[in-house]
Here is the input.
Amino acid sequence: MHIHLSENEKPHKCSICAKSFAKDYQLKCHMVRHVSVECQECGKTMSNRLSLRDHMINLHGGVGQPRLCVCDTCGKEFRSKPAFEKHVLLHQGIVQDNSIQCHLCPRWLTNKMGLQRHIRTQHSETGDTFVCGDCGKIAPNSSALKQHRRVVHAEMKYECEICGKRFKRAISLKEHRAIHTGEALYSCRFCPMTFISNANMYSHQKKMHPDEWQKSQAEKLKK
Here is the structure.
């Protein structure tokens, strides 16, 4: 027999997806689904494993090679459907194109910040080869090699004293520990909502405050 509770009987609400629960411990168990995970290829932190899977498919060709979307008008290729759809709108004059092409390769980036990150991680500084001594991976430059070693080969030296789970970075342990304690580590600057991980706060701002978030991103690019 299933008992359906009303919203008033489920006062504990998730700040990320708006699901409600009758007990506080149920909410804490649910919040584990929103725990951020780190991409082992580039070090970017994603809000959950589903976001990580999409990130791997669109940017790193993981979990099955992504199908390229090719523009019928100019022949430009895209690895993600959203980027392709935005590009099609450019030909229709609906949106403005602020993308920049890398002067070292045919890759197009969405903005100056993306271009700088692309050059820093994908292009060699002097034409030398940078090889990881642990796994043999070839990196395009010293910065990319350091990033690879930090993300892939870093020692799991931070251990949770509550459950024993280990992490490579202190901030990852801190955010994990907040799952156990319920401590709010981050606050949304657009509303009173609090979060246990920076990735969850980022996801919340982008979804719940799109106008304010877009404005803040534009201000960052001006700096």
